[in-house]
Amino acid sequence: MQRTAVSRLLSPSRLWPSPKPYLQTIYGIELRRHALWRSFSSSQSLNKSKKKDNAKNGVPEMPASQSTASSEDPLDLSQLEDGIAAAVSRLKDDLSKLRLGGRLSAETIEGLRVQLGKDTKDTARLGELAQVVPKGGRMVAVLVAEEGHLKPISSAILSSNLSLTPQPDSHNALQINIPVPPPTKESRDQTVHAARAAMEKAANSVRDARGVVHKRLQALVKKKVARPDDARKSQDKMEKLTEKGQKEVKDLFETAKKAMERA
To answer: Per the record, where are the segments of Basic and acidic residues compositional bias (predicted)?
Structure first.
């Protein structure tokens, strides 16, 4: 009995515990670190250049949940509709800035940069320092907030390429009057050219929006997620929406062109 007890006490497992639990602990730590590294390394990367190009061309970004839901439905063309609406809205805004007296509009004057002082290179938008108000006919009034900004604003208007001559108002010391010269043939041509460029930009945005949806439909058909009949229906509807959007863009340009030529 005593010999058996002593042999048990002196057994290798008592004197030198198995390294297995210790190794398992270390291996567990290593495995957890490895899994953590894999979770970061396998995360989906952001395609920044693609998002930047879409934003530049007027293709709106969709929320992740909405994009996932619509990407599985071949009949959902909301992304195309949103892209066309954004292109048309931006074109209307661009054309509205070109209609007043050929090259001139209130937004054009507000966008001029004003140097705040001789001893500084700091500048500010004219629209942040004053309010530009069309007075009817061919006269625009600039209502300056502070007297110290009168001279810098007048200098900015004079030094611009708009061929404008600001004049002080006889009744209000903080008001600058700007007579708008009648448009010449050269200024009309330049305005129509700028309007055409805005129209082409909008048309490209509509085509880009259509291209995004077309690629999505092709991917759904390739993965056999969408039935061929649904894909054909969506394709036909997509072409009609694109044609309608391009027509709206062209009509906006033609209407603006006639107004510019009569100015």
So the answer is: 226-246
- What are the pLDDT digits (tens) for 175-189? 999 998 887 888 788
**SS3 assignment, position 180:** coil
**What is the CATH T-level fold of the domain 106-179, as seen in this structure?**
Gyrase A; domain 2 (3.30.1360)
Residues ≥6 apart with Cβ < 8 Å to 68: none
Pairing of strands 167-168, 175-179: antiparallel
Cβ–Cβ < 8 Å for 215, 59: no
CATH T-level assignment (fold) for domain 58-96+185-262: Topoisomerase I; Chain A, domain 4 (1.10.132)
Pick the residue with more confidence: 215 or 63? 215
Assess contact for 220 and 98: CB atoms under 8 A: no
Q: Burial of 9 by CB count in 10 Å (0-12 exposed, 13-18 middle, 19+ buried)?
A: exposed
| Mean pLDDT, rounded, for 204-212 | 95
Looking at the chain, list the stretches that DSSP marks H as alpha helix, in order from N- to C-terminal side: 2-9, 12-15, 20-41, 48-56, 64-71, 78-96, 106-110, 126-129, 150-159, 185-222, 228-262
Q: Where exactly are the structural domains of the chain?
A: 58-96+185-262, 106-179
Cα distance between residue 155 and residue 176, in whole Å: 12
